[in-house]
Amino acid sequence: MFTKGKGIIMSNVKSRQIKSEEVPARPPRQGFSPGRTVLFSAVWALVAGVAASLCATLVMGLLRLLAGIPTPVEMFGDYVLKHINVDQFIRLLMTYGPNAKTAPLGQALLAMIAIGTALGWLYALLVWIKLPARGYRPARREWLVALAFALLMTLAGVILFWKELPQNFLGWPFDMARILSIVGMLCDFGVYGVVLCLGYRALLPKYPAPNSDRVVARRRQLLARSGVVALGVGAGLGTFGSIQKFLDNYTAYDGIKTSFPNHTDYPITPNNDHYVVTQNPVDPSVDINLWRLEVGGLVNKLGTYTYEELQKLPSTARAITLECIANGPGGHLMGNAVWHGVPLRTLIEQQGGTQPGAKYIAFYCADGYNTSLPLQEVLEADPLLAWNMNGVDLPKRHGYPLRVLIPGRYGEENPKWLTRIEFVGDFVQGLYSSQGWYNGVLRTTSRFNQPFTGNVFQVGQQVPMVGIAFAGNRGIQRVEVSDDGGTTWKEAKLDPAFSKDSWVFWRMDWRPTRAGTYTLAVRATDGTGEVQTGRKQNTVPNGSTGYHIVTVTAK
Fold it and tell me: Rounded to two decimals, what is the model's pTM?
């Protein structure tokens, strides 16, 4: 019995040994070598960085289109423009030519995506996961690093773009616009951090789960990587679509001159024919239900007005001519319209007047534009806060729902899409002032509408001369014409002015007395008695001076 039992036991032992030999034990798991770990980590961190950057960019585009929140790229552009001088600004315009707005923004966007991609390497270094990784769920440290990325990038944006934050293209008020811009950046960079964290972990090589089928594990890994790549591609396509939607509203009308059909000016420029200059690739599309005009700073009573409340204030209409600082002699970056709105003085009275320390007035707009001027000079010009242009609501391109009209100042100091007025003790830097552009009263100008260079007349023929003269709210006292290049002058007749703030039409009949070439010049004397200078000065940066000269021939 004992022998039999011993045989059975020995038989069982041998059987187990045979089975053990038939199914060899799984070898111990081996990690990647340091070099291989670095290589795989770098590659997949790069892919995760691209996917995260594209997802963040898509969120930026959607927030811009749906909520009017400016993208970090746009705020970066605004920041850069305020930190270069006028010469650098002009060189940029010449370098990029007709794409002076879209090309720099496009380059900034690509740079942002490149930086986001490179940050994937920094993330991989900070979380440093031994490869192969175990599981698809990020560890706490990975989440904390991703959160730190999002918070630090948002904080950097807030610090860098603090002055650019209070803008919103749907017209949210100043402080709310700043809050929304901060929330927008937090969303942008939060999405970046989440996608980077999940995507990097999903892409890394994995140990198979215990007792799992290796084929199934490989398929899961392939699906995870395909999902991250598909997310990145989808975000890229979505970004491209949002950019196309953005560009559908591109302000191609920037720099359009006032219409001049048959060398004739309309006394009152039609809205669609009025010159337009804008700093924006896409102008604000203000939601009137969100928009408010805020009055703050050194004023006795702070105030906030809806569109309807503002229109209930005592208002007036007045013809006011606008001229761009880039308008040269004989140029057509100038137009005259009848504007209807509330006088600034009336609004100040509604707020109980300003406090003694108020030396300057600052205007802030939905697109982030701002400008500042001496308060007393502004009040002397009797400005309007206009909501109506030539009998209709302000067109979008002219600043709907509200713009400032300050007679005697160049167009860039008549800001559009106004959201806030602030009375302050010190000058507030804006885009043009920070670059070094002139911000004083506009220069006296005059021009010929007819005749124009190249005209040919008969000796003794009566030639009607017609043109305009403008000196802002100083008015025009006299216009003179010379047919010998400025040696002698004859006085022209003036039509009645439309208002003290508008251009004036002048007229004169002239007869060439000899055959040959004539150099015609025109000059104006403003209401203070100061004669327009003949000294030629470029428009950049102080506004042009000099006579408008045309050359005609008599036979």
Answer: 0.90
Amino acid at 210: P
Pseudo-torsion of CA 188, 189, 194, 195, nearest 10°?
70
Q: Using 50, 70 and 90 to split pLDDT, how confident is the model at 30? A: low
pLDDT digits (tens, 9 = 90+) for 504-513: 999 999 999 9
The pair of three-digit structure tokens given for residue 384, joined into one six-digit string: 């309007």
Q: Look up residue 31 and give its two tokens.
A: 């990690």
Helix (H, G, I), strand (E, B) or coil at 44: helix
Q: Is 161 exposed, middle or buried (CB count within 10 Å of its CB: 0-12, 13-18, 19+)?
A: buried
CA Rg value for the chain: 35
Q: Supply φ then ψ for residue 444, to 5 degrees.
A: -70, 135
Give the pLDDT of residue 386. Answer: 98
Mean per-residue pLDDT of the chain: 93
Give residues with Cβ within 8 angstroms of 524, minimum separation 6: 444, 445, 446, 469, 470, 471, 476, 478, 479, 480, 506, 531, 532
Pairwise CA distance, residues 284 & 415, whole Å:
13
CB atoms within 10 A of CB 49: 28
CB-hemisphere CA count at 13 Å for 190? Answer: 7
Residues in the chain: 555
